[in-house]
Every structure is written in C-alpha cells, then in structure tokens.
Amino acid sequence: MIDPSTLGRWLVIAGLTIASLGALLFLLGKLPFVDRFGHLPGDIHIEDQARGISCTVPIVSSLLVSLLLTVILNIVLRLLRK
Fold first, then answer.
1. What is the enclosing helix (H) or strand (E) of 53?
2. Distance, CA of 61 to CA of 43 (rounded, Å)
3. Which residue in 7, 25, 61, 73 is deepest, having the highest Cβ count within 10 Å?
4. Residues 12, 18, 22, 27: is their CA dihedral positive or negative?
5. Are 46 and 59 in contact (CB under 8 A)?
6. What's 43's DSSP letter?
7. Is the pTM above the cut of 0.85?
8. Ramachandran category for residue 41: left, alpha or beta (phi over 0 → left; psi -120 to 50 → alpha)
C-alpha cells in the first residue's frame, strides 16, 4: 500500500505541474506570433464551401513544435545529468 504522505506529495507535484502548464498556455496565448501556428507556409488547409467541410493539416507547425520541444527537453536532461 502507498504511504499517504508519499501520495500527498505526488498529488501536490502533479497539481503544481498542471497549474504551471495552464499558466504557460495562458501567457503563450498573449504572444503575437502564436496565432500563426496552423497558418504557416507548408501547412495544408482544404475547404469545400459547397459542403461546408474544412480540413487542416499543420505539417510545418507540427515540425516546428517538435523541434522546439526536442531542444528544450535535451537542454533540461543535460542539466539534470550534471
């Protein structure tokens, strides 16, 4: 059985992580260049107005986010190893 103090500590850490992520997303929404994601050159947007259907495939935006997260995670992991 899990010790209640250990469980409490993990719940606090999880709560702080979720709150930090929410604050980060809130602040990122205020930046002027964030609204360009999904509308970069190379992102595919198909729209059929006759049927009212639209489909967006954010290829370049996904690659950019993947590259950014890879760099950030590599930096964090290198700092944690030392």
1. strand 53-57
2. 7
3. 61
4. positive
5. no
6. -
7. no
8. beta
Q: Do residues 43 and 58 touch, judged by C-beta distance below 8 A?
A: yes
What are the φ and ψ backbone dihedral angles of 46, each rounded to 5 degrees?
Answer: -115, 130
CA distance 41 to 68: 18
Which residues are registered as beta bridge partners of 73? Answer: none
CA distance linking residue 2 with residue 82, whole number of Å: 31
Do 60 and 41 contact (CB within 8 A), yes or no? Answer: yes
Each residue of 34-81: pLDDT tens digit?
777 778 898 999 999 999 999 999 999 899 989 999 999 999 899 988
Give the whole-angstrom CA distance, residue 12 versus residue 22: 15
